[in-house]
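Entry 14. Ran structure prediction on the chain below.
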Amino acid sequence: MSAADLDLAPAGLQRLIEPEGLIGTWRWVFATDAHVWSAGLFRMLGLDPHRARAGHELFLGLVHPEDREGWASAGDLVLGRVPRLSTVRVVRPDGGLRVLSIAAEARLAPDGRPLGLSAILLDVTEPDGLTRLCREEEGRRQALYRTTLTTTFSLGLDLLHVFPAEVARVHGPTLAEISVDPFVMVVPEEREAFCARGWEAHDRGLPFQGLARERLANGEVWQFRILGVPAWDADGTYLGRTGLKHPVHGALPATGADRRLTRALEQAVQGYHLRAARGLLDWSMAMLAQASGLSVTTVRRLEENAEFQGARSRHSAVEALRRAGIRFIALDDGTIAVARR
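Output, structure tokens:
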């Protein structure tokens, strides 16, 4: 695993490895030279956040001399020349050596001017430790499905679905069969129509939501709600789909959703959704810009669908609208409704 894989990793895995000092984040605003390091990054570097002042100079001073060319100078970064993925060794103040995988990206103004840097860092010094944590997270997902029949899943560019193994044990088909065709779990009389709807939404790049009855290995038939949403990175690259499956009766467990799904749902919000949300709040573009920390120009680009689908600015705008009482609701036909609480 590298830092680039973390955007598609289950949120539960990230919560597990943060306290272990294996993951950290770094934000740098060029105009003010403000650096924000997460607590996990301080732990990873062996620094006291109350004594050390986050910054590029401090980080570069910890990088092993032989690896400093593998990173980038402050001048290169400020000009937007950011290495997307790199691996460097750092020497901590206690003398310990750590190997870090770094996924970074420049944050740009609409005119292409570099505004800042965002990076996520993963400690890959001891792969066995990451393997253990991955197993713990997979065990949590297995237990969640076994007890609540709720799980997240993903669909890769290879068109293979990724489910926890417990899904196969609960339903009967093998995990390999489910990865190729998850609709095999749907009762025969509903399977063809549900499959056609799902793939139509996939081919059109739309969110999908629907109800399907599925047979369990013990013969019981349960009704499930299936939600699938396309996911994109900040550069507009399509990453696949992420989804949620849960029984329609009873409450959805709080652990049933994760960051990937939330982000994918936010990426499905279009310009006309943002305009409708502003209308419900009686907000101007300037008011949304102020609430979200964006420029008016960026808000206008979002409303004109001129930003990449996975642009971080879209998430900022959606979050600001949610804080103000707006709900974005995925409907069964793949559209999104906008409502006010």
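The longest strand covers residues 97-108. Will compare against last week's run tomorrow.
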